[in-house]
Write a structure and sequence with these properties.
It is built from 12 helices and 2 strands; from the N terminus they run ααααααααββαααα. The chain is mainly alpha-helical and 320 residues long.
């Protein structure tokens, strides 16, 4: 989830421009920016509490539908945000603000706002800081209370990684890049990991070049007329009038998973057809909006993606 600036308590939770607003606030007034970011950590916790409470209520009533569940989710997010920003939450924001405030000290030659921005981005954290999920708030997933997996050094640096043999290994390799793409799209990183898992068979069925090396194309993005980078031609399944057909298509090839996630995020952000996908916070709705936008021809694409997002394999891989 994107960070929302809390000096405006009634700001909509789906406002994807809020992250940039917070960065501006950090530069202009670091202390106020820290307070706003701390409130968002409390917001995430309250969201998980509200979701857990709502999950205990039967969802198969006469007035229940996917639409009502979606809007209930938005309501819970807005309520959590307003509670945290009004000071009626559980006090986590104040504790986080105090801890970072005590340990924060600008480095030589750096502006206070720049240094604090780096801290909130998960960079150069003081050794005594025990807030290992400060990289982005999305590292506290909205769908369950579990931490992000420990990423391998190769994945964290964006370098080439060996092929994953288990879902856990796959998630560890791609998680840091999913976090970066989450910053750009406002979509929780676990949703992006789930889609890359669907498209690549958890890394086992990656699109490969003629020499057997990986194209690092985890999202099945085709190389259209406007693509100027490397590409690879492979046989794939496309659905025409609901029927599968084997065709040869050109797909984009990248130098790393980091490049693949950046390109995917750019695709979503820069194409008007995916405007409704940006910022989606409900996993099932994210899958349905992707299919509605024409991301894939498979008529069951949304169903398959939602089953991974909400399924035990991803959850267990994230728990580690």
């Amino acid at each position: 989830m994107s960070i929302k600036v809390q000096n405006t308590p009634n700001r909509a939770v789906f406002d994807v421009g809020a992250t940039q607003d917070l960065r501006e606030q950090l530069r202009k007034d670091p202390q106020a920016g820290l307070k706003a970011a701390a409130q968002q950590f409390e917001t995430l916790f309250l969201q998980m509490v509200l979701k857990s409470m709502r999950d205990t209520v039967p969802s198969d009533g006469l007035l229940q539908s996917d639409q009502t569940r979606f809007y209930n989710s938005l309501l819970d997010q807005q309520m959590a945000q307003n509670m945290a920003s009004s000071g009626n939450g559980v006090g986590f924001a104040r504790l986080i603000e105090q801890q970072l405030g005590r340990q924060y000290a600008p480095t030589d030659g750096a502006a206070a706002g720049d240094d604090l921005s780096a801290i909130l981005a998960g960079k150069d954290l003081p050794a005594a800081t025990n807030l290992q999920y400060l990289e982005v708030p999305s590292r506290l997933p909205t769908s369950a209370a579990y931490p992000a997996p420990a990423a391998s050094s190769a994945a964290a640096s964006g370098s080439k990684a060996t092929a994953a043999t288990t879902p856990k290994e796959f998630v560890s390799q791609v998680w840091p890049h999913a976090v970066e793409a989450s910053r750009a799209t406002g979509i929780p990183p676990q949703f992006l990991v789930a889609q890359s898992a669907l498209e690549s068979g958890w890394g086992k069925n990656e699109i490969r070049k003629a020499d057997g090396t990986s194209s690092y194309n985890l999202f099945g993005i085709k190389a259209g007329a406007g693509w100027t980078g490397d590409s690879v031609a492979v046989t794939t399944t496309e659905y025409v009038d609901g029927k599968p057909q084997q065709v040869v298509e050109n797909f984009r090839a990248y130098s790393s998973y980091a490049e693949a996630f950046r390109d995917y995020a750019g695709l979503l952000r820069n194409s008007s057809r995916y405007g409704g996908v940006i910022g989606t916070q409900d996993g099932t709705e994210f899958a349905r909006r992707l299919q509605a936008a024409g991301y894939a021809t498979d008529p069951k694409y949304a169903e398959k993606l939602a089953s991974i997002i909400n399924g035990p394999t991803l959850r267990q891989a994230l728990i580690g």
